[in-house]
Amino acid sequence: MSKKGYWIALVDVTDPEAYKDYVAANAVAFEKYGAKFVVRAGRNEQPAEPAGTRHVVIEFDSYDRAVECYHSPEYKAAVEFRKNAAKARLVIVEGV
Fold this sequence. Notes:
four-stranded antiparallel beta sheet, 31% strand, alpha+beta
């Protein structure tokens, strides 16, 4: 049985209206690759260094599936919308 994969993203949204286009576009990739949102914005506390204005954790059935989604044509198309709307730091990790 393979371990789940996760995207952990710390995002600084610079243009909230344009960011909506990114969210709409990334839904195509996330649906295709079976992504499930564990965290999608919400209340947060940042007790150490600033960690972005939006925080997202997305679960995939496997680490490989998470990596495939990131490199997919569908997600690459969505990233084009994000480029001018936000700066993101993203890590893809394997779960336990």
